[in-house]
Amino acid sequence: MVGGSSLLEVTPHSHHVWRLPLPAEGYVTAITSAGQGAWVAVNQDHGRSPAELWYVSGHRVLKRLTTTATDIHELAWSDDGLWATTFDHEHIALSAVEPTGHLQRMAQLPSDARSLTATRGALWTADYRESRISEVRY
């Protein structure tokens, strides 16, 4: 999948590109694979409206969650759940995504933290200016 001002699913072996329309003023900021599909962060209205999380599988949106954030930057999925990062003043907040879409803040990361990946019991992020990888255990 590829994000931005639209959501594209690219099938490499057939070279097929499928486009999922987004709401006006919506843009995809993060994608993470999850099971048979992917979770997608859709920020809307240039950060003036709550962001949504979509679970996409089989060329369809199967679930939509309205979040308590206006701007989601990274997503990660593990068997333990869905995780998201958002800007919070001068830092980045790392949150667990509850089934309701509420973001439960778990940790504060440096403002230069980029990328997020999950393994069972831990999350990983990179602080590119410090050339450091951080592990957050939960």
> Which outline best applies?
globular
Radius of gyration: 15 Å
Arithmetic mean of pLDDT: 87
The span between the termini is 28 Å
Strand order, main sheet: write it out.
Answer: 3-4-5-6
Poorly predicted regions:
none
Proportion in β-strands: over 45%
Number of strands: 13
Main beta-sheet annotation = 4 strands, antiparallel
Bin the helical content.
under 10%
Class computed from helices, strands and strand pairing: mainly beta
Number of domains: 1
Oligomer: single chain
Question: Your description of this structure?
Answer:
It is a single chain. The chain has strands at residues 7-11, 16-20, 26-34, 37-44, 49-57, 60-66, 72-78, 81-88, 91-97, 103-109, 113-119, 122-127, 132-137. It is mainly beta and 138 residues long. It has one domain (7-111). Strands 3-4-5-6 form a 4-stranded antiparallel β-sheet, with no helix packed on it. The model has no long low-confidence stretch (mean pLDDT 87).
